[in-house]
Write a structure and sequence with these properties.
The structure is a single chain. By secondary structure, the chain is of the alpha/beta class. Helix content is 33%, strand content 21%. It is built from 16 helices and 21 strands. The strands form six sheets. The chain has a seven-stranded mixed sheet. A six-stranded mixed sheet has the order 3-2-1-5-12-11, with helices on both faces. The longest helix has 27 residues. The relative contact order is 0.13. The structure holds adenosine-5'-triphosphate and magnesium ion (MG). The site of adenosine-5'-triphosphate has 21 residues, from helix 10 and helix 11. Key enzyme in the regulation of glycerol uptake and metabolism. Catalyzes the phosphorylation of glycerol to yield sn-glycerol 3-phosphate. Pathway: Polyol metabolism; glycerol degradation via glycerol kinase pathway; sn-glycerol 3-phosphate from glycerol: step 1/1.
Length: 507
Amino acid sequence: MPDTQYVVAIDQGTTSSRAIVFDHGGQIVAVGQKEHQQIFPRAGWVEHDPAEIWTNVRDVVGQALGRASITAKDVAAVGITNQRETAVVWDRKTGKPVYNAIVWQDTRTQKIADELGALGGGADRYKSKVGLPLATYFSGPKIRWILDNVDGAREAAERGDLAFGNTDSWVLWNMTGGVDGGVHVTDVTNASRTMLMNLDSLTWNEEIAGEMGIPLSMLPEIRSSSEIYGNDREGGLLAGVPISGILGDQQAATFGQACFEVGHAKNTYGTGNFMLLNTGTSPVPSKNGLLTTLCYKIGDQAPVYALEGSIAVTGSLIQWLRDNLGLITSAPEVEELARSVDDNGGAYFVPAFSGLFAPYWRADARGALVGLTRYVTKAHIARAALEATAFQTREVLDAMNADSGVDLSELKVDGGMVQDELLMQFQADILGVPVIRPKVAETTALGAAYAAGIAVGYWSGEQDVIDNWAEDKRWEPSMEDAERDRQYRLWKKAVTKTFDWVDDDVS
Ligand SMILES: Nc1ncnc2c1ncn2[C@@H]1O[C@H](COP(=O)(O)OP(=O)(O)OP(=O)(O)O)[C@@H](O)[C@H]1O
Ligand SMILES: [Mg+2]
């Protein structure tokens, strides 16, 4: 056993920040959590206040340490995991962000993406280099937007005064001292979501940065996912503790689910859904609307790649039923409401709130609720909202099977929505393969903890992660094939109703 007993993970997510204290068995000892404000200045725009995020991170670390009754001396290492793509640009001298963080779901950069595509190659202009299609989702065009639209930002960036980061870099820079010597670093997984990193060399692509008008001096140094980047600052709650793991949230969940071999996959059900399939040490291009992305890189070892199916809206549709319609007062209530009816009553809900991500990549789509009759009640709508998650996941799984040439035989799941047993059974039914939930469903934080702990020798390597993983529950498919096919056909038809909604004068 190591001398220090615990590892802390900071999970800076889309809706909240969490800090979790883990023990050597990978079990949760204590959690701190705080939601931050979602800022919607216009239709399609989504922002966060980076200062609020940094305050919340400090608060939740305090909560978690307090609840575990431990202090910095009991902590071997800190790992950071984060909402990916969300872009923060700040002034290195003042430590202040020059604009709110532009969140991954934000669609304001469509015009920038279109203009870059028009230089030649369309949406696939950079795909062979960075693994991603030109879309509003990724960080690069968001940085460009800030430099184009914030007074004085471009000049300051060209002087070398501005820094860019996803929220991993923002939190790390602040934790390691901010204006007083803060470390400006990111890991390969986060860098692979910017559209600016070469998949093969793991370096910034100067040509793409040039076309996007982004000075290289703004970009963080790219490091592995598991190594010591720096120590928590003097006066910090974790003063002196090494910060030694960074993984984007979805890659962290893949790590926490012990998907270390080619063909291993997990699906995380949070704000959106993200399925990642480990494809080994070389990048595999997708022909079916998936992304090629970094999965993880441990220290000096070879990088491991993944294919990813990203779905923008799943759990956030449940939040929308709660916050925008008032249909429920808390997310778990959706299951109760949905269970009060036997089926969706013919209603299909396609939540294309940010357009459609994988496998369609249709920026012109917007949400639609179709198949409505006088028969449909709010309970059917609750059911249709849950089913939307399962149908979207089926579409991504089909794309994975087509790209990899092997059919997945089971699916490991995690994230907030996997508490919903109605959804889990329907998911198994619609996929036709078993769905498996692990004992520790907080796999995002867990993966970041493992990456940090491995770097300092608290855990010896992947085998510890494999040994600690344990199954909690599995759902077997029980739907007739004909019924599965019928429902999936109707879903696909519903999806087509969302296409082509956004005209030049519609945002
Ligand atoms: N019982 C439930 N049934 C359906 N959805 C649920 C249930 N409980 C939580 N959710 C949904 O799960 C999501 C929260 O999951 P989770 O905490 O994994 O999100 P997250 O994506 O990690 O958050 P973040 O984006 O901040 O990282 C919310 O969108 C919520 O609506
Ligand atoms: Mg999360």
